[in-house]
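(Protein data)
===
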Amino acid sequence: MSGQLAAAEPYATRFETEVTAVDGRQVWLERSYFYAESGGQPADRGVIGDVDVVDVQLVDGEQVHVLETEPTFKAGHRVLCSVDWSFRMYCMRAHTASHVLYGAGRRLLDDLGYGGFDIGERAVRVDLETSTTVDDDILIELDELVNRAVWKSRPVSWEDVPVADARERENVAFNEATEDGALRRGRVRLVTIGEDDGGGGNATAIRTTRTGSRAEPWDVAACGGTHVRNTREIGPVTVLGRSNPGEGLTRIELAVGPRAIDRRTVEKRALFDAKRRLGTGAKEVSTELERLIEDRDDLEDRLRRTESELVSARLDRGESFERDGERWHVATVGDVETELVSDVVRSRIDVRAETAEGDDVIVAIGEAGRPFAVVGRAGSRSATGILDDLTDAFGGGGGGSETIAQGGGFDATIDDLRDSLME
């Protein structure tokens, strides 16, 4: 079971107690409702006496309160303590939201396992083990299930049970490596998110349905953290995204409270902007975007084909001549992409290699900011060797293979390059 009073009584934030020891800025209390950092939940903030608490850690099972400055009170003094309620409540909401998310995962993901979590000031991270690929559609479903569970006002309860009993229950999320704070003296603290409250206050975690059968709770997990009493207290939740922190793990990030609202606002603005620009309703935005993407892709294909035809036509207008016993062809192709020119030259060299008809060496000279050259060969000369001759004479650089090479950055004009090749 959790030895932290904060976990057992999370709504207790003001108390009086005796100081048992002081060591510089470190303070030990006879009784403390400050939550010590554990299991992914950060330490509480607050005040002891008149000094701010900046950290709380568990050392040998005892809470060590780290103060901002050395206190004036001594061991044996009684002090008034106050836990920062705003931050405590945020952690309670965030921690319970992570359990709600895991419960949603139970309903959507295969081979689900728990890999840990962390409460940050901007987001809550939950690591899941699952064989399911968590894509955007799954994220949307998780977001919907989480918020429906919040809306349903499911009761949240906690109890201490023997560890052996918890291990035998199939529906318990129990990872001893990440939830050591929930274990104590052979017992474990289980947090249960139950069925709908139905307005009856703190209903039992597992309720009987109208048919008389036992209804499964939303989630049951070993946990030593602080939680709200009902999911409705969580407030707004937004699933932010996913990542892969390690092999076999999927990390889901969610926001709770104001940051969840901020994210929803950003998403809403983006949707409304898309609606306005597309001239359609919210449900039709995706379909309209798909149509526009298909149109764009089709236009890009047509443009590329047109540009390829243009490059090919300009190559045809080039000059052919004999050089070193081979047939060379040199042409200027204008301001086009180097890769596009390479594709056209490569296709011509491939035809030459298959049919033995055409030029042995093709050099296309263009200008995309600065002059460039694409060299293709089907004869005995190396394409990179021909390119090296150009870079030796005019600087720049490039590379390629024996059959196709390209380079640029020459300190020369297009006419200089063409003339040097045709000498």
User: Anything to note?
Assistant: The CA atoms of residues 25 and 356 lie 87 Å apart. Residues 9-83 form a domain with the Elongation Factor Tu (Ef-tu); domain 3 fold (CATH 2.40.30.130). Confidence is low (pLDDT under 50) at residues 199-213. The radius of gyration is 35 Å.
